[in-house]
Amino acid sequence: MSSMAEANISSAAPAFSTAAQAVHWIVNLAKFGIRPGLKRMEKLMEMLDHPERRLKFIHVAGTNGKGSVCAYLTQVLKQSGYDVGTFTSPYIEKYTDRIRFNGENIAEDDLLRVVNRLKPLVDEIAASELGQPTMFEVSTALAIEYFAHVVYPDFVVWETGLGGRLDSTNIVSPILTIITNVGHDHMEVLGDTLEKVAAEKAAIIKPGVPVVSAVAQPGVIEVVQQTAKSKQSTLYLLDRQFHYKRISSGENHQVIDFTGPFRAITGVAVSMNGEHQLQNAAVALMAIELLRQYYALIVEDDVLFEAMKATQWAGRLEMISREPRILIDGAHNPEGGAALAQALRETYRYQKLHFVMGMLSTKNHSGYLRHILPLVDTLILTEPDWHKKEDAASLADLAGMLLREMGRSEVEIIVEPSWKAAVELVRKKTAQDDLAVVSGTLYLIGDVRSWILHQTDSEKGW
Q1: Cis peptide before 90 (omega within 30 of 0)
Q2: Which of 2, 22, 278, 409 is geometrically suited to a Cys-Cys bond with 115, CB 3.0 to 4.6 A?
Q3: pLDDT digits (tens, 9 = 90+) for 266-315
Q4: Does residue 408 contact residue 373 with C-beta atoms inside 8 Å?
Q5: pLDDT of residue 425
Q6: Which residues pair with 343 in a beta bridge?
Q7: pLDDT, tens digit, for every residue of 387-421?
Q8: What distances in angstroms separate CA 9 from CA 12, 116, 123, 426, one per listed residue?
């Protein structure tokens, strides 16, 4: 941080006296919306004397699977004895979930201290021609400053917020880049074709920094390959440079064999459910192998096996109630819907399937519903407690039309805008041999998870 900025901060009284006040200020910045671009972040990093240059980042982008890959990497690094910072979004229950050190949320005292350091700088930028920094920009800066000057981890697992090119996380120069996949999400911001979305995500690739990816569509592969080539970065692509084979699959226990350019790793077990988690696990294994090769990372095989099996990620095919069985999953786009539907067909056993769904208005709902509707007996449409929510009645109209197309007249459709009432309704409907699923936007999933597990409301923010 520049001496002038230090002097300004030290002479002023702290803006906030509690962590709750600090979080309230950040979360309230959400009203300024999403404003893609790096100029405000560049200015903020300059005013802080570039704390991002002190850290080793593993930058993770992609439409789905980012959080799970981050969870695998965090667990392996932590259990191997490294200090690891993790930045993810959106958070599931508490604002502090998104900034973690060795798996623990940022302490409130640390958050308060760092936010009081940031606040006058953010206000200074807001008063300039650059305009008000957004909630996500301030959160990103908070994470960087916390990692760089409070805990200083060996590695930072760094998840993009939206896209890549203009995402505030793209302020860093990573040691490794990961692009999990590219699908139909945020197309109103990132572009109206998968190739345009891929170009936005591939823009996190930095010169000479290796890239791991599981992108699958030919046009998307072409975009990622060309970007990597132009940056002279080596690309490690699933089904080309590395592979996985499913050996067994059951609820809470799946096993793969992994084959990479350096060696094979057989019999890797994971506890997360769904075929898509096997792909996420393979991407994480390839990333760990590259860190071993390029950065002399020391990960013993027994620790690797233990860590992969121990990895959990809240809100992804997570069974949060056993009586009745209630599964939550943050699938909210067509690709997520396809992965959820595959898991419901292959992994879970049930007599009847009762499905609660709440979405944001910006999503491709028909693409998602086409995967889910063939499986459900009851469909309860609800609304997340969030300003961009989709109207439950509109979702019901769309679902009804699609069900008529499919010739499924026996599905019961219920509109219940109150998500708490929807949860109580599905509880009552779900018999011992049935399964209830709550899915859709993570803003809904976070609320439902907090309510069922803790009987409290979650915090909110992107």
Answers
A1: yes
A2: 22
A3: 999 999 999 999 999 999 999 999 999 999 999 999 999 999 999 999 99
A4: yes
A5: 98
A6: none
A7: 789 999 999 999 999 999 999 999 999 999 999 99
A8: 5, 8, 12, 52
Q: Given the structure tokens 């997570």, which residue do they identify?
A: 318
Contact status, residue 44 vs residue 172, Cβ threshold 8 Å:
no
Give the rounded distance of the alpha carbon of 107 from its chain centre.
21
